[in-house]
Design a protein that fits this description.
Length: 297
């Protein structure tokens, strides 16, 4: 059975899959595409035509065409109630995101080196120089494409996490570190956030700040929006728009961004979280009883 997750980049949330599931289900996964394990991430909309069996474990739905759940699917659990409703499975299967399994991992206790850390969504990270902004306002910047253990270490070393990346909030919540949700760009999918937060009886109440773009992204947006293929014209418009944003909007944005340190913080109820983790662990054992014994024959 092949472990399936988004692998086009080394995004933190997706990179948790092999770390968590190879540890909990050791020496099991291979590269056979005829049977697959769908883990953490919004990957239920993807097509897997060669897979004769699809084991679904804490996976989410967020966009695209809703998959038809037929006999090839073996749904152990999904990320939250929105996913369960979308794909038409028993609401009891809406447990929570599989990253909550980190709750029982033996991480060393870390000294709190950072009062506030910020982790952008991996797409937003390309839009602007967030390290420079964080340095300016006194926040610690966490690169969402850094090795996942480095990200976990940075989260543990923080007093609070400002999270545009959903798995920054999920892991922070799992490790009992308060988090502050942020949405800066239209690419942030609120359905995913609502799916996860509702699984833990919370509401997604993001802080909305319209953030600037770097020159390259500004150029790409102008070219796409106005269908401009004239290189000289595009370069001129892009530089003018970028300069306008830098002169008039950047300082205003930085002021709002800095104030996020005082925004309301979130942390799920510990009893609810522990109950969800216990349910996930039971599903791990159920999966192993159904598939690992066959795998070893």
């Amino acid at each position: 059975m092949k472990l399936i997750y988004y692998q086009k980049n080394k995004n933190f949330g997706d990179a948790l899959n092999p770390y968590i599931f190879n540890k909990l289900i050791p020496n099991f996964f291979d590269e056979d595409p005829t049977s697959i394990f769908l883990g953490i991430g919004s990957i239920l909309q993807f097509n897997f035509p060669k897979a004769q069996k699809k084991a679904v474990f804490s996976t989410g739905f967020a966009y695209g065409e809703v998959p038809k759940i037929d006999s090839t699917y073996d749904v152990f659990c999904v990320r939250g109630p929105i996913t369960a409703k979308k794909i038409g499975v028993d609401p009891k299967l809406a447990i929570t995101d599989g990253a909550a399994l980190l709750r029982d991992f033996d991480f060393p206790i870390k000294q709190k080196k950072f009062k506030v850390s910020f982790m952008p969504h991996h797409q937003s990270d390309c839009y602007y120089d967030w390290k420079e902004i964080c340095d300016r306002v006194g926040f610690n910047y966490i690169n969402p494409l850094s090795p996942f253990l480095e990200v976990i270490d940075a989260i543990q070393s923080s007093q609070v996490i400002i999270a545009e990346a959903m798995h920054a909030a999920i892991v922070a919540d799992t490790l009992r570190i308060p988090w502050i949700p942020l949405k800066m760009y239209p690419s942030i999918n609120e359905l995913k956030w609502n799916d996860w937060t509702s699984s833990l009886d919370m509401q997604y109440e993001a802080n909305y700040i319209k953030a600037p773009y770097n020159l390259q992204t500004t150029s790409e947006k102008i070219a796409t929006r106005f269908n401009i293929d004239n290189g000289v014209l595009l370069k001129g418009l892009s530089k003018a728009h970028f300069k306008y944003n830098e002169l008039l909007k950047r300082d205003r944005f930085i002021g709002k961004f800095q104030k996020l340190a005082y925004a309301p913080q979130f942390l799920s109820n510990e009893k609810i979280l522990d109950n969800k983790v216990e349910q996930l662990q039971e599903k791990v054992e159920l999966f192993k009883s159904k598939y690992c014994s066959i795998h070893t024959l």
